[in-house]
Amino acid sequence: MKKTLEVKTGTDKYKILIGDNILSSSGSLIKKKLINPRVFIITNKFIHKLYGKKLENSLKKNKISFNKIVINDGEQYKNIKTINLITSKLLEYKIDRNDTLIAFGGGVIGDIVGFSASITLRGINFIQIPTTLLSQVDSAVGGKTGVNTKEGKNLIGTFYQPKLVIADVSLLKTLPKREILSGYAEIIKYGLIMDKKFLHWLLDNESKLKTYNKKYLIEAVFRSCKNKAIIVKKDEKEKNIRAILNLGHTFGHAIEAINHYQKSLTHGEAVSIGIMMALEMSSLQGNILNKNLNKIKDHFQELKMKTKIPINIKSKTSLKKFKEIMNSDKKVKNNHINLILLKNLGKAYLASRYSTKKLDSVINKYIN
Fold first, then answer.
1. What are the b/e assignments for 237-253, b being 16+ CB within 10 Å?
2. pLDDT grade, residue 117 (50/70/90)?
3. What Cα–Cα distance (Å) separates residue 186 from each residue in 223, 235, 268, 269?
4. Cα torsion through 177, 183, 186, 187, rounded to 10
5. CATH class of domain segment(s) 178-367
6. Which residues have CB under 8 Å from 324's CB, separation 6+?
């Protein structure tokens, strides 16, 4: 079973291929997108050990030469130091503008490789082969790239679209359950912000998704990417409507920063908590009914998703500090935090006007 989707931007278009065990035939798919038959695979040790040979054999079969750059992975390595390492290696290999980078890993790898591609020789092609659920449904699609700094998450980066995305759900079978749930936070986000039918489909098929049924996984990835493609087509560089894709992220990014991007909390887990905080704020603003808030909260808890900030992170912050970190978010305008809230289930908006007392109330509820 394979599904294909096209992403259109103002200047380009590319395909997302979603299926089971399509990595084995990735070489023939990649070859169609190459100018030079040479690629640079950028991955981590774990993915290289598990799936490296499958990708490399497919490249060899299609007479594509390759070099590998294996880097440390994780939010703590998503920084300028890693970008320097990659770009230096590429220049050592005498990369030229007709070569292509392959991002072979999760969201961190994808963001780092996309950023490296955008600045090396002022821009070279790259292809995404996302290996986590979160990257397949979100970060590999749409062209956002970037790195973290001590001031905040993804504050240095570019918008740079891939030439192809290959999402193979068979790669998800080796993921720990917490990584699957991290990805699910981004999936349900699409239902909450813009697709009520998809939201109900997710709620109705909870048991199938919990058992990693491939047919339902492919459908969930496809419908998530389809929703994101609609938004990216309208607003490639987040000038307006694309901001709604950040439901829960302003809160979540602050939680990650307080935790210094340590592995004790994944990006998806922080987003999961952030979504609950955004829904609480939406409820206090009188937008969504308490019964709907509780329906989503029950769904998260049934799946054993994160809905509360861990005690060890709570102890590192205060209302003042939490809001200071939120103030470094990219959606801040004129020193005012803009929030993504819901008008109702399936409809999000960028809130520039809201009660700061209610915001303080939500933050205090989660950090105390």
1. ebeebbbbbbbbbbbbb
2. very high
3. 12, 19, 7, 10
4. -80
5. mainly alpha
6. none
pLDDT at 1: 76
- Nearest one of 336, 330, 328 to 359, comparing CA atoms: 336
Is residue 217 within 8 Å of residue 206, measured between CB atoms?
no
User: Tokens standing for 201?
Assistant: 């489909």
Q: What is the largest CA-CA distance in the chain?
A: 62
Q: Which class would CATH give 2-175?
A: alpha beta
Half-sphere exposure of residue 345: CA atoms within 13 angstroms, side-chain side: 18
pLDDT, one tens digit per residue, over 311-335 is 999 999 999 999 999 987 766 666 6
pLDDT of residue 331: 66
Instruction: Tell me the mean pLDDT in the region 158-163.
Output: 96
Which tokens sit at 75?
């939010």
Rounded Cα distance between 89 and 289, Å, is 54
Handedness of CA 154, 309, 132, 198 (dihedral sign): negative
Buried b (16+ CB within 10 A) or exposed e, 6-19: ebebeeeebbbbbb
Q: Fold identical between 2-175 and 178-367?
A: no
Domain boundaries, the chain: 2-175, 178-367
Looking at residue 327, its pLDDT comes to 86
Tokens representing residue 27 in the block: 């070489």
Q: Could you tell me the two tokens for 77?
A: 């390595």
The token pair that represents 126 in the structure block? 């790259």
* Tokens read off for 346: 């399936």
